[in-house]
Amino acid sequence: MDSSLLMLMPLLVLSSLIISCCGNFHRDFEITWGNGRARILNEGKLLTLSLDKASGSGFQSKHEYLFGKIDMQLKLVPGNSAGTVTAYYLSSKGSAWDEIDFEFLGNLSGDPYILHTNVFSHGKGNREQQFYLWFDPTADFHTYSILWNPQRIVFYADGTPIREFKNSEPIGVPFPKSQPMRIYSSLWNADDWATRGGLVKTDWSKAPFTASYRNFNAKTCVRSSRSSSCHGSSSSNDAWLSQELDNASQERLRWVQKNYMIYNYCTDTKRFPQGLPPECRSTS
Ligand SMILES: *[C@@H]1O[C@H](CO)[C@@H](O)[C@H](O)[C@H]1NC(C)=O
Ligand SMILES: *[C@@H]1O[C@H](CO)[C@@H](O)[C@H](O)[C@H]1NC(C)=O
């Protein structure tokens, strides 16, 4: 086990391992807003969010997590979804919050969604990377995953890594590792910026817009008073806590970044005239 994990042991022993398989939305989530526009259906197996001119809707996890490997299947707003944003993210609270973001920016029928990602540590973000997808995210459910352990954050689509944010604390970059986060999701109107930079507005004659969720599956450490820990379980169960990208995964990551990445803050020299952020300059 590497030393950064050993240093975290006392922290992890305070928390407990929860494995949520074949998720039940009634058990793991609560609807937080939208006045009936968010619904849990099929005995907890399906959740839908909707958006109309009056309001969007949203939900959050009941638990807070400190590290996790979290999968969720989403089927995004089909047809003309221009102006809509489906946000799916992890976030802690307070003014120095941490956050790990997926945001799906809708588009006109047949035009590609943008998958927008960001990582905030201690209240500071500005680490956007954006992608097109190699599939139609509205035609069926696809799995979006976040691996968050003490060494790295990896974003995945259908098991393919699309982004890796490594722990660069040794070169002075804060990394989210001490504030527990909840899962949040919402569907809302952002036609002032979302589609082609705000040029294409939401067509309310197509409302309500609906996004669907299923198969929440998570291995996480949960903050609670229970006595078992992340390390109490078998090694195969907590392998995610030190998981890294093997060669094949790194190869996939390069494939996505070469063919589907449309924005990377790490190459935006105009935006950072004083020099790119340190994590971009490191070769690690
Ligand atoms: C929408 O489609 C246009 C035209 O293909 C494209 O430039 C844009 O990146 C797409 N996505 C969004 C969210 O604007
Ligand atoms: C991964 O790649 C490195 C260098 O490119 C190589 O030395 C190593 O053997 C590879 N590992 C596997 C499991 O293929």
From TrEMBL:
Tell me which EC number(s) this protein carries.
Answer: 2.4.1.207
Annotated catalytic residues: E99 (nucleophile), E103 (proton donor)
Give the molecular function GO annotations.
hydrolase activity, hydrolyzing O-glycosyl compounds; xyloglucan:xyloglucosyl transferase activity
Looking at its record, which EC class is this enzyme? transferase
Q: What is this protein called?
A: Xyloglucan endotransglucosylase/hydrolase
Q: Which PROSITE patterns match?
A: GH16_1, GH16_2
Glycosylation sites recorded in the entry for this protein: N107
Principal place where this protein is found? secreted
Q: Which family does it belong to?
A: Belongs to the glycosyl hydrolase 16 family.
The record's annotation in Pfam families points to: Glyco_hydro_16, XET_C
GO process annotations (BP): cell wall biogenesis; cell wall organization; xyloglucan metabolic process
The residues covered by the GH16 domain are: 1-213
Functional note? Catalyzes xyloglucan endohydrolysis (XEH) and/or endotransglycosylation (XET). Cleaves and religates xyloglucan polymers, an essential constituent of the primary cell wall, and thereby participates in cell wall construction of growing tissues.
Recount the PTM note: Contains at least one intrachain disulfide bond essential for its enzymatic activity.
Which GO cellular component term is one of those annotated?
apoplast
Q: Which species is listed as the source?
A: Morus notabilis
Q: Where is the signal peptide?
A: 1-23
Subcellular location field:
Secreted, Cell wall; Secreted, Extracellular space, Apoplast
Please provide the record's keywords in A-Z order.
Apoplast, Cell wall, Cell wall biogenesis/degradation, Disulfide bond, Glycoprotein, Glycosidase, Hydrolase, Secreted, Signal, Transferase
